[in-house]
């Protein structure tokens, strides 16, 4: 749950930063990476909004804001945003169907009826008792969160066996052609 909670927090923060970049005018309309970051954050916020925790309604609102943002980018000619908007539309339909199954009674095209209902079988990573202030979060504050500290405090995995397989006859079966000047003959390059 720590990883899920960290992803949700980072998605909230990323969405907020990208929105601020748009407002400040530093978000390039045709930049693929900012558009991809926005879509990634929106995807995580969509999943978080289905968890029905105490922040799920805010996550749903941020998801809708990111979807509108992507739509504006698409309207301005961003081809990546055009592709991502198709995925956002599919997510909205799936979210509406999930909400209707859980008793949210959302209509087929209505995606604004995402209110938390206690009949959900999902749990929210945010409800694990670790407070998170949704406003004015800086990068330093996000790194000082207890859940992220727990994640970062885990022992480093011993992956030395990967390097050993490369150096200990791991490439023995590969064919390496001989391109040395000694192997070239003048007749091989002559026109026939």
From TrEMBL:
Protein name as it appears in the record: Fungal specific transcription factor
Q: Give the species this sequence originates from.
A: Colletotrichum spaethianum
Q: What is the lineage of its organism?
A: Eukaryota, Fungi, Dikarya, Ascomycota, Pezizomycotina
């Amino acid at each position: 749950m720590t990883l899920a909670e960290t992803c949700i927090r980072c998605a909230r923060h990323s969405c907020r930063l990208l929105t601020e970049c748009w407002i400040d005018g530093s978000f390039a309309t045709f930049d693929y990476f900012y558009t991809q970051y926005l879509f990634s954050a929106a995807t995580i916020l969509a999943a978080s909004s289905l968890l029905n925790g105490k922040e799920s309604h805010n996550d749903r609102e941020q998801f809708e804001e990111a979807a509108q943002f992507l739509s504006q980018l698409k309207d301005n000619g961003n081809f990546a945003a055009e592709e991502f908007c198709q995925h956002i539309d599919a997510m909205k339909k799936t979210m509406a169907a999930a909400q209707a199954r859980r008793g949210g009674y959302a209509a087929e095209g209505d995606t604004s009826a995402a209110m938390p209902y206690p009949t959900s079988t999902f749990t929210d990573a945010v409800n694990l008792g670790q407070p998170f202030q949704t406003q004015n979060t800086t990068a330093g504050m996000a790194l000082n969160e207890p859940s992220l500290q727990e994640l970062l405090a885990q022992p480093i995995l011993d992956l030395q066996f990967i390097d050993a397989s490369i150096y200990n006859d791991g490439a023995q079966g590969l064919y390496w052609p001989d391109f040395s000047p000694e192997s070239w003959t003048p007749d091989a390059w002559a026109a026939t």
